[in-house]
Specification:
This is Response regulator transcription factor. Keywords: DNA-binding, Phosphoprotein, Transcription, Transcription regulation, Two-component regulatory system. GO terms for molecular function: DNA-binding transcription factor activity; phosphorelay response regulator activity; transcription cis-regulatory region binding. The chain contains 15 helices and 5 strands. By secondary structure, it is of the alpha/beta class. It has a 5-stranded parallel β-sheet with strand order 2-1-3-4-5, sandwiched between helices.
Length: about 270
């Protein structure tokens, strides 16, 4: 169970086209001091997530209109909602479906039929660390299949998510995002967060399923996408702002990640 302070402040958004089936969970969450919001489809869920800023989202997969995967992807594409942890509630137990869920950006999976106590325990666990998970969830590219492959049909989360390791990772991510244009070397980054290069590299692989360099590259391209959407900066200026010295190198990396050049992206989304 969460400490009283977190219970009083946390809001849970449930997106499910059959909310009656979740009535018992809603009642228990309310009794524990959580505020709950209910949405019957993905469109309504996205709207309520942007307006209500929930601390966590429980999301069904099989819904009319946008399914859970598309809803999650849309949540992760919006600056106002991308940091909100999403837990899928679903009867789908196939590994391919689970991998698809993590590719869409979820942080956990609970398969139906589920025990209400399991739902409450997982909600509590993610909310206790929401300041850490939120930072990770800012990625448009979610953890790789290596992390997802550790999740079995029983919904068990990966082992070894120690708090000390997560805090090292959190500090390193802050530095990389703050100094994206001219980031420290891995050795210097490790020194500044109080560990060594090997340990820091292991934490990135364990918790994010990618190397420090891969994470930085992903965040640079995500930031570039935001700048293309929200500013009128020239392509070269955006490249330099995220740490690419040459616009050609930036265009190549962007095309590999998003399937189009920065100029094509701006034309399509401008």
């Amino acid at each position: 169970m969460l400490p009283d302070r977190q219970q009083d402040s946390a809001t849970i958004l449930i997106i499910d086209d059959e909310p009656v089936a979740l009535r018992a969970i809603v009642a228990e969450l309310t009794a524990l001091g959580f505020e709950t919001l209910i949405a019957r489809d993905g469109t309504d869920g996205l709207h309520k997530a942007e307006r209500g800023s929930p601390d966590l989202i429980l999301l069904d997969i099989l819904m009319p209109g946008w399914d859970g995967y598309e809803t999650c992807q849309r949540l992760k594409s919006r600056p106002a909602t991308r940091a909100i942890p999403v837990i899928f509630l679903t009867a789908l137990c196939d590994m391919t479906q689970k991998l698809k869920g993590f590719e869409a950006g979820c942080v956990d999976y609970i398969t139906k039929p589920f025990d209400h106590r399991e739902v409450l325990a997982r909600v509590s666990a993610h909310l206790q660390d929401r300041h850490l998970f939120a930072r990770m969830a800012e990625q448009v590219g979610p953890p790789s299949a290596r992390r997802a492959a550790l999740i079995g049909c029983d919904g068990t989360a990966p082992k070894g998510a120690d708090q000390a390791g997560l805090r090292l990772l959190y500090r390193a991510i802050d530095l990389l995002l703050d100094e994206m244009a001219d980031p420290p070397s891995l050795t210097e980054l490790a020194r500044r967060v109080g560990t060594n290069q090997a340990r820091l590299g292991r934490e990135f692989q364990t918790h994010l399923g990618m190397s420090t360099f891969e994470y930085l590259r992903e965040q640079r391209l995500v930031r570039a996408q935001e700048l293309l959407d929200d500013t009128d900066r020239q392509i070269q200026q955006i490249a330099e702002a995220i740490g690419f010295k040459r616009a050609g190198d930036f265009a190549t990396a962007f095309r590999l990640r998003f399937g189009m050049t920065p100029r094509e992206y701006r034309r399509r989304h401008g």
